[in-house]
Amino acid sequence: MAPEARYSVRLFGEFHLDGADAPMPDANSPRLQALLAYLILHRDVPQSRQQLAFLFWPDSTQAQARNALRQLLFHLRKSWPHAASFVHADAQMVRWLPDSAFDLDVAQFKSALATAARAASNNDAATEEQLLTHAAELYRGDLLASCYDEWIAPQRDQLREACIAALVRLSQLSEDRRDYAKALKHAQQLQRLDPLREPTYMALMRLHALNHDHASALRAYRNCVEIFARELGIVPGEALREAYARLAAQAAPTQRRRPRDPMLSMIGRHDEWRRLLEVWQRSQLGDKQFALISGEAGIGKSRLAEELLVHLSGQGFTTTHSRAYAAEGQVAFAPVTGWLRSPALHQAMSGLDRLWLTEVARLLPELLTQQPGLPPPSPLTEYWQRQRFFEALARAVLATDGPLLLLLDDLQWCDAETLEWLRFLMRFDVSAKLLVVATARHEDITPLHAVSRLLDALRRDDQLTEILLGALDAAETAKIAAQIINRPLADAEATRLFEESEGNPLFTVEMMRARSDTATAGGTPHGTVPKLPPKVYTVISNRLAQLSPAARDIVGVAAIIGRAFTADVLAQASDVREDALTNALDELWQRGIVRQPDSGGIAFDFSHDKIRDVAYAEVSPLQRRRLHQRVARALEQAPDDDLDAASAQIAAHYEQAGLPTDSAAFYRRAAGVAQSLYAYDDAIALLQRGLAQAGQIVDPQERARQSLALQLDLAPPIRISRGWAAPELDTPLRRAVELSRHAGDFGQQARAQLSLAFFLVVSAELAQARSLSEELIAGLGTSGSGTYASMAWTNIMGSLVQQGDWVAAEPAYQRALGAYDETQHAEHVSLMGGNFGVLASAWSAHAFWFTGFADQALRRGREALEVANRLAHPFSQALALSYLATQHALRREHGLTLHYARQARSIADRYHVGYYLAWADVLLAWANAKQSPGADAVAAMQVAIEGFHATGARLRLPLYLGMLAECLGDVGETEAALAALDQALQHAEHTGEHWLDAELYRLRGELLLHRSANLAEAESSLIKAIEIAAAQRARPLELRAALSLAALREPREGIGARRVVEPPLARFAEGFDQPDIVRARALLAR
């Protein structure tokens, strides 16, 4: 007979069998409960009596066990009238009828989990959470907790693990939604289910901390320690101990950083939040990551990033926040400075080695005061020094123990130097647990933007996670509004708000705050309207118009400042009394116009840049000029160190105020600061702006004075960052020389003339370079000594060498050597980037070789390298090695050329010395081509020469083109080789760089010999080579040309042709191991 109602069977926890309006069976017997549970759990398959008897009474005989089973089934039928509708028993089998009317909690549990898994695969988190919650509620305890039979243990463990997994997932889903109270409830249920599971205690500590219950977070750890010691005799794992140490060291919860507006909870962004947490977890494994949150203005980028910062800092992780500004006058590395000045990083880096702290002091000059005896950073003169500075900053940032979050707002406005350093940081210390989160307006980042280059590099290295934020939906928009007005919106209100705000959180907040204000006032913008929807602009403008008069004044001054501001600067730049200023700031804070980025700090900032934009536009043009001047004057009151940091900002304010004299002076000061931070491009841009301002100065003498100073300062950063022959040097150097003749002192004239002279040398404008240097020597007077003299005589000597006047070059070298002192090294480097004593010796070595003194030439070249090594100056080392490699190339020693050129290239590449890098590449390509001729080797030679051209330099092109011609000839490309020689000879004729004319004509003769059977033209070219070499006293080139002529004539004249070699060979008194001399002797000995 069928039962009148369905029965409910509960196996989780205690056994329970219940049916509505039906008598309850007498199921108190543990054996009967176990039997029913077994039959229900195995209802899909009939169970044999024999198997059941053995399973439940294993210690009895078969007959006793079967009899016990019969009695138990009889008792079931007698105590439960509806038993036959659920349990079928015959002589052989017993089975719970699967189609009977019953509900089983275990089946419901499994069904809920399976359906939840399908929902998860469909990304339906809401349905998944609902089903998992139902499953967790069904699990009232372990499966049939009163049963201790062996058969139940595997199923009990399986269901228990399934419930644990469900609770873990539930806790995670709630935490992802930032519903920490609910996540905590699930974690506590987990702890009760399995008190020996360590990840549960980690979750409890984290969730208590996120719920601002610091004491409970610490108590969770202490409970874990006690339970693990009592039950397992062990201590918690390292990760849990580290988490406890972070929380124990943390300040009281009330001192923690909070989001910018604690009134407003973050709405939506569930998927984006999950991705941020995932990338954080990845970074904790030692895989440094960079997350970019992008979207339009006001879409909630900073709000999402700050939510992560609060989430992590609440757990005791080290976090710090900085930002970039669109306002002009931002100092290089300003965001990095902000990070390093945060308490967590500032305290940690104090333990760095003094070498690194000295470099960090370029950004944080207060370190020199805080740590007496810390050496001040040395002046920067070379690009390669930036590597050490970058490493120091990376070490300072990563000095904290454990994982680190760096937050950077408004990446699109970040300076190029910070972007380049961020790339360095992401490659530095592969084991660092670092996550950088940046926000950016995606519409401002074009493919050519500097940020794009950083992002491309991060993508290549699989370090970038990109999160693009879109508009909120209508329901989420309504939830934000409800938080502001403290009531739900009616459907019509919500629809209208969504249409007006377009789901933009900032617009939504501003519109609702405007509606909540009781006053209404319009306003017509005085200035340029920011790029905002007109309706939103009007809303923000009206909000500002509703401020008190004092607050309106203050908000205008704050907008003029253009970045974070202090009450002191506001007071100095405005006409508002101190008490009124305090009240006005409080009003702005209460209304959400401004905020304090750092809790407990003294600086304020606008709650959003768009509010600043509107506030600035509301200030009339005349008022702006006046306020820019007052802000600049206020910022000038800062101490010297702070004044350096603010100098670019002050310059921009003076420019906006129409005061070019002050503006130009501060742009020059700002450029010096930028150069001290290796921010050479910034320094160049600042100096160019300063020059533009100086050009507007009315007083002609002051205009000339400032223009000269700025032009002189412009040359070093261009030379350091772009090379000695950068075309951009031409105009400022020529202008500096022109200005110095009537507006400069002697030191300025000397600097200008030396700088231009050396630029002209590497540009192969040798006559002009020599003339300028001689003018400087004449101006020095009778003493002719000192730094300027040694550098000027070196320029003269080098010009003579390249012009092929070896005899005159040696006295010039002696004058340079007599004026040089190694103590001048720092001044040489400061003025020109390299040591001119090293340069003079290396360059004069070439003159020695050309005049036949090969051994002395090698000694002089090696002495130059020894001095460079003793000075430990990479630029000078690359210089000496390049000259030495060239000397071995002139000697035709391919192996030694490779040896020294590789060393030169290594140093030049490591220290970013582009000129010598290109020079070394040409020598390497030539030596490789001579050792292994072929089309690929020639192509490499051509690429190397193109690379040299790209530096802007033209000096030694005859050598390089001659080398190319030689390599082309080796592979049978005679016409191309002759064309290269024609180009080399044209260059020599145009520039006066005649030092290699004899070799070029010799090569021409060799090539003509291969092209035509008519030997006359080839012989004529070789004779001309000998004549040129003889006239220049270029002994090695004369001998080499004579050897080529002898080879040409020998088939016609026989042994008599060799006599042409005898005179030049007889002129050598040393260098007998050179290949040409060895070949000549062998020829004459035959």
UniProtKB/TrEMBL annotation:
GO terms for cellular component: cytoplasm. Pfam families: AAA_16 (PF13191), BTAD (PF03704). Gene3D superfamilies: P-loop containing nucleotide triphosphate hydrolases, Tetratricopeptide repeat domain, Winged helix-like DNA-binding domain superfamily/Winged helix DNA-binding domain. The keyword ATP-binding applies. One of its GO terms (biological process) is regulation of DNA-templated transcription. The keyword rRNA-binding does not apply. Keywords: ATP-binding, Nucleotide-binding. One of its GO terms (molecular function) is DNA binding. It comes from the Bacteria. Residues 104-248 form the Bacterial transcriptional activator domain. PANTHER family: GUANYLATE CYCLASE DOMAIN-CONTAINING PROTEIN, TESTICULAR SOLUBLE ADENYLYL CYCLASE. This is 6-hydroxy-D-nicotine oxidase.
